[in-house]
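Hi support team,

I've been running sequence recovery on a batch of backbones for a student project. Most finish fine, but this one hangs at about 90% for roughly twenty minutes before it completes. I'm not sure whether the input is malformed or the queue is just slow. I've pasted the structure tokens below so you can try to reproduce it. Let me know if you need the job ID as well.

Thanks,
M.K.
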């Protein structure tokens, strides 16, 4: 049966005859459908976040597996976690069919091999403590299904993110589904459009909300940011200032003593502790700055 992602979109028929402004209007109309589709899956997203947080607290990891655009979006989301939340690189990992070369150049044939998806998980030493999020807009990518089947056999939690009604044939291997139904694409079959937008929105929430629940955000500040470049150092200074009320010079000096860790600098300043004692206090409160400051 043909996937809805492969159907023609009636709203974009004869798009090649339309003016640029008309085409842009169509994009806006269709993108709103993607946002609505994700909102309709709110309860499913909440449950998926709960599964991820439980795994993280038990020492597990989160893996994204996808092909093409889906794989690239998973790798993108995973790669943003260390600089944003100071997570170890292995905590959230993105796997794309065809390997890292597929991030820049299409390796289309690899997505048709379910055994490759399963083998990649074994190579990453995937365990029953981990969570696998398989991403496949069409709901039927063999590489992703092979990975889901392997993860299920190991006894791990499996989440399937697709943009069509969940296919019956994969339900036996999936713990939980997130299925924002975005409908046909503006350009038939081009799932880097609405399906890609919906996927990115969901992945944003999976990791960001999980990290909030793990204490890596205070108020709406990324207090666990890793200050690895000039922009992030400046941001860290502003974060320390916002929480403690000190001036920029004091914040910068505290950050230097804290090894660039904003959260640690905040505890040092607010509780008048050295770095070692401040770090011990953070560990006692499992990294939750709110618990210490309140």
């Amino acid at each position: 049966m043909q996937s809805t992602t492969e159907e023609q979109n009636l709203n974009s028929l004869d798009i090649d005859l339309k003016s640029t402004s008309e085409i842009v209007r169509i994009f806006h109309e269709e993108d709103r459908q993607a946002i609505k589709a994700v909102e309709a899956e709110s309860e499913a997203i909440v449950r998926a976040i709960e599964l991820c947080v439980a795994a993280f607290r038990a020492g597990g990891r989160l893996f994204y597996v996808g092909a093409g655009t889906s794989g690239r979006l998973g790798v993108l989301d995973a790669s943003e976690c260390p600089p944003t939340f100071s997570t170890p690189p292995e905590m959230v990992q993105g796997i794309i069919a065809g390997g890292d070369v597929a991030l820049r150049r299409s390796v289309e044939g690899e997505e048709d091999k379910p055994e490759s998806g399963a083998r990649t998980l074994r190579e990453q030493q995937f365990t029953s403590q981990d969570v696998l999020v398989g991403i496949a807009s069409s709901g039927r990518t063999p590489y992703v299904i092979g990975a889901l089947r392997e993860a299920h056999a190991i006894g791990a939690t499996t989440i399937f993110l697709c943009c069509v009604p969940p296919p019956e044939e994969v339900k036996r291997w999936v713990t939980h589904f997130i299925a924002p139904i975005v409908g046909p694409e503006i350009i038939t079959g081009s799932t880097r459009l609405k399906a890609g937008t919906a996927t990115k929105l969901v992945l944003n929430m999976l990791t960001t909300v999980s990290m909030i629940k793990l204490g890596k955000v205070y108020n709406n500040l990324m207090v666990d940011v890793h200050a690895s470049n000039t922009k992030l150092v400046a941001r860290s200074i502003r974060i320390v200032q916002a929480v403690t009320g000190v001036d920029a010079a004091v914040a910068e000096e505290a950050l230097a003593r804290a090894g660039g860790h904003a959260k640690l600098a905040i505890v040092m300043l607010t509780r008048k502790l050295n770095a070692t004692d401040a770090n011990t206090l953070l560990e006692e409160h499992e990294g939750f700055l709110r618990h210490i400051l309140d």
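--
Follow-up from support: It reproduced on our side and the slowdown came from queue contention, not your input. The chain has a mean pLDDT of 95. No action needed from you.
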